[in-house]
Amino acid sequence: MAIVIHKMLVILLLFAMGAVAEFDDYMRRRAEESRRESLKAYNPDPEGVTVQFTQFVTESLAGGNSTERKLLGIGCKATNPIDRCWRCDRNWMNNRKKLADCVRGFGHHTTGGKNGKYYLVTDPSDNDMDHPKPGTLRHAVIQKKPLWIIFAHSMIIKLNQELLVSSHKTIDGRGKQVHIAYGAGITLQFVTNVIIHNIWIHDIVPASGGMIRDSLDHIGFRTKSDGDAISVYGSNHIWIDHVSLSKGYDGLIDVIEGSTAITISNCKLNHHNDVMLLGAHDNTPIDKIMQVTVAFNRFGIGLIQRMPRVRWGFVHIVNNDYQHWELYAIGGSSGPTIISQGNRYRAADYRYTKEVTKRDYAPQSVWKNWQWRSKDDYFMNGAFFRESGPPFVPGRKPYTGNNMIQYKLGKAVGRLTRTAGALKCRPGVFC
After folding, report:
1. Is 306 a catalytic residue?
2. 167 to 143, 214, 293: CA distances (angstroms)
3. Which end of the chain, N or C, is more open, meaning fewer C-beta atoms within 10 Å of its C-beta?
């Protein structure tokens, strides 16, 4: 069976390559490399990843043993397993790269620029798309070597064109208030191993396109951008953590075209219509390899739909706080697998939007077979999750031992997500 699945995925990848025919030779090579990396990143046992993630959360809620609590430090209020990994270090500023050891879920192999040098952004300008000025964020992200990118001071960066980030980069805004705002957004296209951490992204608008440099040895023509805050296209091993997002022109986070091995965690999302799109088209089955963990996020005020909307892939939605939605929270088409565990769903007062889920472009006779399952979620104000498909049975081990407390997790979401979004970290104290 594994050989059959592997061959099928190869065929799908080759089929998807037709979409990049308009690119030059450089972009075609990058697309091919990215497809191969995505295929390697695909996990044939996604249920096992969800079990491992659940165990981390359980241990985090239990608080660990007394020795662990002592090591974490009295006064550290990090509650979820990602945050507890790094936020309880008063010396976090000098140990920034510890962050790369903390990702959980499908993106758990992501290390970003851990193996590279630090790059200090000193200049918020973004004026030259061909030869970016040294010291700017655009100059940092096009370097070929791994880099851990930090900021000299708080700044507002208005991107004149979409920011094309190359592989093996970390954008780390801790200790400053860094806003990507009032211009174009961030694009990860045909790249691997990128971390975006602790920045604000808001008021994003489409950019006109044109000749834009995406690496030291390549500049290419880009069409008009969509106005996404973060767009992940044909990429793998991506971690988006503690990012505050609002008011994009199109989507806040899009993950499309065979992207996989992705974790979106600890983010705060407000004031937007089409919030998060995982899989762009019903006619691009390349997204069957998409595997995304959505965890510890706070879906806040002014949100309408797509939290997320999923096509084809496997998505683990765990311990998120849905404060309300105007149309629906979780939607999908083309037979995705959606596992919802320990989330808190609070419906709006409007009686016709109580349902969490929405299925598109398929009759009930078809979608009844899609695996959409809810376990230990907490429903408020009449919210309900319409399940379908076979029960979720973890691949490695049943829910035993500490996992039995999972029925409490939905009610614990407020604690797990209370510091979602960009943090205002200060040197010498717990972040």
Report:
1. yes
2. 9, 11, 20
3. N
